[in-house]
Amino acid sequence: MSESSGPAHRPSAVAGPWSVPVLFRERRPRVVVKADLLPAVSVLGVLTLLSFPLAFAWSRLAPPERVRIVDADGTQGALELESWHRFDDLAVFGFLLLGLGIVVGVVVWLLRERRGPVVFLAAVAGVALAGALAKLLGPTWANMHYTITTPPALGAVIELAPRLESWWVVLTGPLGVSIAYSLLATWNGRDDLGRRLG
After folding, report:
1. Which UniProt keywords apply (predicted)?
2. Is the per-residue pLDDT at 79 higher than 80?
């Protein structure tokens, strides 16, 4: 008279005609770390070497600040609008480093078989290190380029070497790498970022 008191049978989530069996579902690729470590170290080392051309280019492109000698003991007097070049020096360095970061982000993305967070982080760290070294080397080379060999005469206008007065500008390089790489990864849209050639 009473129905069976056994457990109710619920339809299986994989038994329906429109469902996909769990065994055949595509597995998400895991992050490859071990195989990407050596390429990441190589990327980091190569990018660090870019600090030398970056520093040299900035030391030649950044505008110097002109001042006038107002006293016989060499006291310098500021000229109108010349102090703005202190910001120009930072801007030139920032744009150079930002451009380098964008190019590096694209080039690292083209390493198809090494796409992923390991090489990406190496690229970010490499550009940051290159920017930090260039910030130290650039003013040194600029001082050598604008060296004053003889004492200036009273009333003479001299050029002071460009300088970098803030470390925040170093962040523009990693920002460029992150923007370029993130946009390309978003445009790609694959779980494995297209590492597999098939």
Report:
1. Membrane, Transmembrane, Transmembrane helix
2. no
